[in-house]
Structures are given as structure tokens and as C-alpha cells.
Amino acid sequence: MAPGSQLQAPTPLPIGAPAAPEWLVAGSIWLLLGPINLFSRQLGEGLASQASAGRHLKVLEAGQHRLRIRLLDDGYPGWIEPNDLLGQAEAAPQPRPRPWNRPAIKQRLDAVITFGLRALEQPNSYLWGGSLGPDFDCSGLVQTAYGSQGIWLPRDAYLQERFCQPVAVHSGITHLLEPGDLIFFGSPQRCTHVGLHLHNGSYLHSSGTSTGHNGLAIDNLSPSNSSAVASHYRQSLRGAGRVMHGHDGSPLPA
Asked: Which residues contact 169 (CB under 8 A, 6 or more apart)?
């Protein structure tokens, strides 16, 4: 190659080509071969989410320090370190989302819940942005439990709330809930926490240190439960939702 010349990414990239710095350009699509961290901004340590092997991402912008990308199964944006893709990704075509309807989802709910309960058995602590395990945040746990069965949900709790079909629930009134439903908590203005319903108002969730368990635990919505954590979340109960379909990967409004 002549001095001063630069490689240009072919259009389209050869499918299966390993990630190379010169090919990490806007519009390129990559299949992850290993896990990566997504950050909330171009600089800094703020973890936004994580992505496991087998997921797809699209490069939106090659920044000065990091790549701005979007995960293609849940539409989630973030920034990643370019070096994290080297040896950990290969060029891929645009993935096609798998269609899911409620009957098909119901057949997988036992496995979704089993994933969550097995995660509970592992030593863990709360991690903001955690979605790989064993350390999760609340919505990362829910998304990954469903994602273990190929059913993708939006990443954040408030987006998951918008995505689900509402189900009526109140403290002590949980008979309309089904296993695998999502229970939402927060202020009247915004959802800030989510749990995975198990049965009879019991739910699995990952909560933080100030008002939670610093990791995964099971609580319930019973008004007779005097646990400080259960009482805190019961008082901030917003509602519940049912997963009726899978997310197609399109970007969602903030």
C-alpha cells in the first residue's frame, strides 16, 4: 500500500469479515462474537448497557474516541470502544426480527422465569447498565430473561412499560396478573423500576442499595408484607404490563 494511503471499507462489507479499524464506518453492521459494554456518552465511565455474543449492532457515527452505535434487536443506542470489536465481531447483513405473538410467547414464559430464578441463585450485586449477568439492573434482568428465549423487549423500564399491554394491578389485588408479566414502579410522572412477576403478586427484581437489596431478590405486593423494601416498592407501584409481541428493533422515542 502506498505511503499515506488508507484502506476503504467495501460497500457492502464481505459477510463474515472480521472487524478491522478501517471498516468500522457509519452504516456497517456487525455480529458480536463476544460481550461488549455500551456507554452513555463519547467520554467517561457511565455504563449504559451491555450486549452479549450473538447480538447485532450498526455503526451510526465514528466519533473521535468511541463509536456511536445502535443495537439492532432492541433499537438501543450507545457508545462503544472501537477496540472492543476487534476480534469480537464480524460483518453481517441486516438481521430480520423474528415475529412473536402472544400464544408463542406464552409457550416460552416458563423458560423466561427459569432464567431469572437461576440468575437469582448466583452471587450478584446491582449494576447500573448491567444486562450480561451475574450483575444486573432492573430492566437489564427483565430484558435478558426474555432475550434468552429470543424475545426482545426495549432496554429501559419506562420503555418496557410503554411497550406492554397494560394489566390492572393494585396492592393486594393481583388476580389479573399472569406469570411473566412485568410490574412497574416509580413516580406518577415516570417509571423507574421493573420486576418480573412470578405468581400471586410475587416478583423477581434487581434493586439498588438505597431502597433495595443490592441485587436480585423476590418481593411481593401483599399489603401484609412489612419488609422495608417491599413496602417501598408497593408505595411506588404504577401498574403492570403483558408482553404481547417482540420488539422489531426500531428506535424508540426517549
From this structure: 176, 177, 183, 221, 237, 239, 240
To the question of domain 21-91 being in CATH 2.30.30.40, the answer is yes
What is the distance between the alpha carbons of residues 251 and 15, in angstroms, rounded to a whole number? 24
Strand order of the β-sheet with 56-62 is: 47-51, 36-39, 77-80, 67-71, 56-62, 29-32, 89-91
In a structure prediction context, what are the per-residue pLDDT tens digits for the chain, which is 254 residues long?
A: 334 334 556 667 899 999 999 999 999 999 999 999 999 999 999 999 999 999 999 999 987 899 999 999 999 999 999 999 999 999 999 999 999 999 999 999 999 999 999 999 999 999 999 999 999 999 999 999 999 999 999 999 999 999 999 999 998 899 999 999 999 999 999 999 999 999 999 999 999 999 999 999 999 999 999 999 999 999 999 999 999 999 999 988 76
- Upstream peptide bond of 93 is cis (omega within 30 degrees of 0): no
From the options 2.40.10.340, 3.30.360.10, 3.90.1720.10, 1.10.10.10, give the CATH code of 102-242: 3.90.1720.10
Amino acid at 77: P
For the entire predicted model, the pTM comes to 0.93
